[in-house]
Amino acid sequence: MKLSSVTESMLAGEHGPARKWAVEHQIQIGRMFDAEDMVAVSQAHMMADPESIGLAGVELVEGFAALPEEQRRVAIPMITDPRGVDLNYYDPLGQTEEMANLERRFIFACRAMGIVMTNTCINYQTVMPPVRGDHVAYGDTGVVIYSNSFCGARSNFEGGPSALAAGLTGYTPRYGLHLDENRVATKRFVIERQPEELTEWGVLGAVIGRRSGSYWEVPVIEGIERVPSSDEAKHMGAAMASYGSTPLFHIVGVTPECNSLADVNGTDLPIEKITDQDVEELRGSFGAVGEKVDVVVFAAPQLSIVEMQSVAMLCRGRKLHKDTAMLVCTPPSVYVDAKNAGFIEDIENFGARVLQGTCFYQQYAREIGEANGWTRLLSNSTKIVNILGGYGYKPALASMADCVDAAVAGEIV
Amino acid sequence: MSDILKCHAGIGGKVAGEALVANDNFSARYDLDRIKGIFSRPQHALAGQSYVDKILVLNTAKGGVATAWMLYEMVSRGMAPRALLLNSANTILAQGAALAEMPLCDRFDDGDITALIKTGDQLIVDPERGQVTVTRH
């Protein structure tokens, strides 16, 4: 991979050990994916919850943070994905002081490096959406798929270490979705049933993700008659990325790189139908009507202000069942707006808890499940029910309204 | 007998070990109990099996970005696979392997790696040369 004179001098150690580490990391990735050179990126977004990074990862970042100012500061605007511990509310969840301390140490190190702790996986709704053609280094698969597909930005899935490397150098290896040839469609789907509310958009995304099945496939979708809202697009993308490791898709007439099928070289691709049965099959695998529900979770992705309003309206004047818990995850910035609007009060008077800057599956889900005796989990997120099976939960899926009804009844309705 | 399988240049140094194979996909977050060192997702083809010190041979990556940090954390506790071989890695697995210095190879010339290698085969993985030597008893 060809380096610029700047990155060459970073590799030589002239900008300190953090940037040297970053370029060395990027060279390995570039070689693996045959990148010819690097591309400048305008922003980096780092997934780094303490459950994933562990003590080893925290110590690595602390090592960088201890360097002199000019050696440790990131080179471009850099923000963070959700935290694993809401430092205002962790003991009642069964999270330990050890988990919280790991989080505190990591936050301290990030701040020293100039990383802004936005703690959000919906930065495209809340912080600074990228523009078409913008090269970025984003973590969180939901962020990447939304930014590539709906904004027309260009990012690979950049895991925490690679986003950090991009933040330190200001570049990323030019491979994958930074290149035009990898953004054309490879699979063509036609849908039969129009998705309506958020969960249906999520289920559709999941079905397509599962059929696509690899990072290197790009689905193009025909037959969608209504432009999805930002929240609907968010659920669709997050589920597709979760089930398929899919980083980009096109919807004919909706997403910016695909006014027509021909724009994404899709006209000669064989048609695969997404039938009613495909949708029902996926949804049916997460059905559990009549069963007791231990915890209802709204997260993955974090809730926008519009979703916070919807949950608040469903909660208003009602009461959570005494044997059921309900958690709502939202970014710190949305929390402030929701508080001003009275939504937090509505949700907490109901008996639920709003967590700031976390996302349920990224916050030691196994440990908090065991601490609280939670097994049967209900959510409107097709993404979260996919993830939590491996964490010892029996996840079930329902619409937002049905989730709140279940929280009142104490059983899945 | 020994076979040599050629693949794309990978990540990390040369390593030898025993294969644990399944025609299934991989995510450290979705599929593993990282404390116990076993596959924990009930639907995974390797559910209940230990991956510690094994050379994992699987189809592709799935799901989120957490694996990029998790492999490093798993190596730091000595509870990690010794190497990863896949038909097709994604960017996250490559990034995680690079941070963890865990050998990783993908894109094999002879087709489906999960069919070409059997559980229990002894492997020598050489990412720099892009080759895996398989010895079967």
Give the arrangement of secondary structure elements.
The complex is a heterodimer of chains A (413) and B (137).
Chain A: H1 5-11, H2 17-32, E1 38-40, E2 44-46, H3 50-65, H4 69-72, E3 78-80, H5 97-112, H6 123-126, E4 137-138, H7 141-151, H8 160-169, E5 171-173, E6 187-191, H9 198-212, E7 219-222, H10 230-244, E8 250-251, E9 271-274, H11 276-284, E10 295-298, H12 305-315, E11 325-330, H13 332-340, H14 343-350, E12 353-356, H15 365-372, E13 376-379, H16 382-387, E14 394-397, H17 400-409
Parallel strand pairs in A: 2-3, 2-4, 6-7, 6-9, 7-8, 10-11, 10-13, 11-12, 13-14
Antiparallel strand pairs in A: 1-5
Helix pairs in contact in A: 1-2, 2-8, 3-5, 7-10, 9-10, 9-11, 12-14, 12-17
Chain B: E1 2-6, E2 15-21, H1 28-31, E3 32-33, E4 38-39, E5 55-60, H2 67-76, E6 83-88, H3 91-100, E7 104-105, H4 113-116, E8 122-126, E9 131-135
Parallel strand pairs in B: 2-5, 5-6, 6-7
Antiparallel strand pairs in B: 1-9, 2-8, 3-4, 8-9
Helix pairs in contact in B: 2-3
Write up what this structure looks like:
The complex is a heterodimer of chains A (413) and B (137). With 413 residues, chain A is an alpha/beta fold. Chain A contains 17 helices and 14 strands. A five-stranded parallel β-sheet of chain A has the order 12-11-10-13-14. A four-stranded parallel β-sheet of chain A has the order 8-7-6-9. Chain A has a three-stranded parallel β-sheet with strand order 3-2-4. In chain A, strand 13, helix 16 and strand 14 form a beta-alpha-beta unit. Chain A is globular and about 65 Å long. Chain B has one domain: Phosphohistidine domain (Glucose Oxidase, domain 1, 3-Layer(bba) Sandwich), CATH 3.50.30.10. Chain B is 20% helix and 29% strand. Chain B has a seven-stranded mixed β-sheet with strand order 1-9-8-2-5-6-7, with helices on one face. In chain B, strands 3-4 form a two-stranded antiparallel ribbon. In chain B, helix 2 runs parallel beside helix 3. Chain B is globular.
